[in-house]
Request: fold
Amino acid sequence: MTFRSAPRALATATAALLALTGVTACSNDDSPAGADPQRVDVVAGFYPLQFLAERIGGDAVAVTSLARPGAEPHDLELNPGQVGQISEAELVLFLHGFQPAVDEAVEQQAGDRAFDVATVEPLLDATAGGHDHDHEGEEHAEEEHAEEASEGAKDPHVWLDPTRLATIGDKLAERLGTVDPDRAGDYTARAATLRTELEKLDTEFAEGLKTCQRREIVVSHTAFGYLAQKYQLEQIGITGLTPENEPSPQRLAEVTEEAREHQATTIFFETLVSPKVAETIAREVGAQTAVLDPIEGLSAEGGGDYLSVMRTNLQTLRTALSCS
Ligand SMILES: [Zn+2]
Ligand SMILES: [Zn+2]
Reply:
């Protein structure tokens, strides 16, 4: 077990015990909810939200992530202990539309203790940053992307634009300040520090991807819409907005064709999803594979954080797209 997961396991056990015995911390009197009266108990749906809460909350918060390191968080299922954590937490950080099981539990258990980061700024449409140009003499561009463009669908992968993540961080600091007014100034200050770091990262991306020989990225699921929009890339997703859908043979053929046409040197896969399909396409077109991490969770081996994984992503992109 990693250093990070130990307190989580303990918190799970505590919440499970509370659930079993029917005792809830808020049932007795107006004493603060949660396991640690000195700190604000925050439950986060998945890693980037955990990162924000830890950076902005510092040692004033105790953060529990519902998604385990090494597990793909889209299709997270909650055990009773985790539902208990959601009902006990002083603040539940989630992103509506990303993890259906969390959405449901929040709706039933969290009440006004929930903070939906999808409400901070309007989300992009599911097709944003998609690869939607007309190839010369081709008429299939529309239908090619029709499957991703299901009516009104929004893209939840907002954290892959560092400036949006900074704005969410500012709002989180405000929210923590209302939960814990004594330390409101600390939260604001830490959010400002994090904003500086995220803006520096944004500048590195903008400069690092300014001049490249190619701008199309073939990725395993369409997690990179915000990154693509921000830095003028075009993503060609093997699958749609969630990674578990197996691509149809037709989609596989289309993506292979796109990869050829755009002379992709690299087909990207993810740490938390099988690389098989990416490898198949890469073999087909004579490209290599590389990890482009959507940072939906850290790998089980841990190591690094949002900022360092994003910098690794930037280097990977610069190599794959031959950026100068
Ligand atoms: Zn995703
Ligand atoms: Zn194309």
User: Anything to note?
Assistant: The longest helix spans residues 184-208. The pocket of zinc ion (ligand 1) is lined by residues 74, 157, 221, 223, 243, 294, 296 (CB under 6 Å). The chain has eleven helices and eight strands.
